[in-house]
Design a protein that fits this description.
The chain is α/β, with parallel strands linked by helices and 366 residues long. The protein is built from eleven helices and 13 strands.
Length: 366
């Protein structure tokens, strides 16, 4: 291996350089898990249902359960009906929630806005589901009038909704209370709502006055990314749902001595360790507050530069007109059409924002 080490070292150096200016994607780079390093040399596999017994003891199911119970309390999911697991990423969490909806209503139609993450269309194709893409309002929120119009045309079909708790590019929040009221207004009794809360699911529960996910209401499931706000050095995620829905898919597997209730069989056992450590060791409320304050700082600075920027309420995503390509490349900005965005997480400090603004200002003066 020693003769190959320079190749790895060179690649490591490139990654370190890129990380210094990565502000366009939802990845928190402020983390330190050195205290957990002894676990990194162990094989950990969270196979099977985290709430059932298993023959496999090289797992971190204990930590997995702690995380689910912690989030269930935050999102008002009752003790008697709470269930969830640590996924291998946000897409798996969304797939699980939509899968629950399809199992409940095999002939249901999936509805989601055009600002919804690209993976939802892929999930619909994988699950062989009919789907309708609803236009979005200018701020990225679903167009409720268009949603109502679409569900009225197929009132004989169950409705499955993938709502957004923070859209990918604009950080818009779909109002699930309004969606439920429209379903009730049109006398649609068979419906299932899944919420994609990839980024905001670990931020807004700690912000006073922010729109809140309440799983005691007619919401079936929610998916949250584990690595975005928390800062985990690999993709991981969390899905929460209700036991009543999981019962319809569970199977007893003799081979592992556990219930099969998840999408993936073998699952990363290190993810729950790091997620629980982050929850225990960090001040989530203060970090969330700082991210939103810094997002407002960035937005106000761009406005002073007449840079046509936007920031949704309770969002840490600032979107603005697309800058020159060299700025996009240097700062790893996500772009769509004529605009780009910055996701203000813990490592995107005011100092880093000022550095970015210097590059923007150079362009304005040229």
């Amino acid at each position: 291996m020693s003769d190959k080490l320079p190749f790895f070292t060179k690649h490591l150096g490139k990654i370190h350089v890129s990380l210094q200016t990565l502000i366009g994607y939802p990845i928190n780079l402020n983390y330190n898990y050195a205290e957990l390093s002894p676990f990194f040399h162990l094989f950990l596999n969270n196979v099977g249902d985290p709430f059932s017994e298993t023959k496999h003891h090289l797992s971190t199911h204990l930590f997995e359960r702690k995380i689910i119970n912690f989030l269930a309390k935050l999102l008002n999911l009752s003790k008697t009906d709470r269930w969830g697991y640590i996924t291998n990423g946000g897409t798996e969490g969304n797939m699980y929630g939509i899968f629950m909806g399809r199992e409940l209503y095999p002939d249901g139609i999936l509805y989601f806005s055009q600002d919804t993450h690209y993976s939802i269309t892929k999930i619909a194709r994988i699950l062989h589901m009919s789907y309708e893409i609803i236009p979005s309002l200018e701020n990225g929120e679903i167009d409720y009038a268009q949603f109502e119009k679409r569900i009225r045309t197929q009132k004989n079909k169950p409705v499955i909704v993938c709502a957004n708790y923070g859209t990918t590019m604009k950080g818009a929040i779909d109002n699930t209370d309004k969606i439920i009221s429209l379903l009730e207004k049109n006398n649609i009794q068979k419906f299932y709502i899944h919420i994609d809360a990839a980024l905001f699911g670990m931020i807004l529960p700690f912000i006073k006055g922010a729109p809140h996910i309440d799983l005691s209401k007619q919401i079936g499931s929610v998916a949250i990314s584990g690595y975005k706000f928390l800062g985990i050095p690999f993709p991981t995620g969390i899905v929460l749902t209700k036991k009543q829905f999981v019962k319809q898919i569970e199977r007893k597997i003799e081979y592992v001595g556990a219930l099969d209730t998840t999408i993936s069989g073998s699952r990363n056992g290190h993810g729950p360790l790091l997620i629980w450590y982050a929850i225990q060791e960090r001040d989530m409320k203060e970090e969330a507050k700082t991210c939103l304050l810094n997002a407002h700082y960035l937005n106000s600075c761009l406005e002073k530069l007449s840079y046509n920027s936007h920031l949704n309420p309770y969002s840490n995503i600032v979107w603005f007109k697309k800058p020159p390509q060299h700025v996009i490349q240097k700062w790893h900005l996500a772009t769509q059409g004529d605009f780009a965005h910055i996701v203000v997480l813990q490592h995107v400090t005011k100092e880093k924002i000022d550095e970015f603004l210097k590059d923007i200002n150079k362009k304005n003066k040229s």
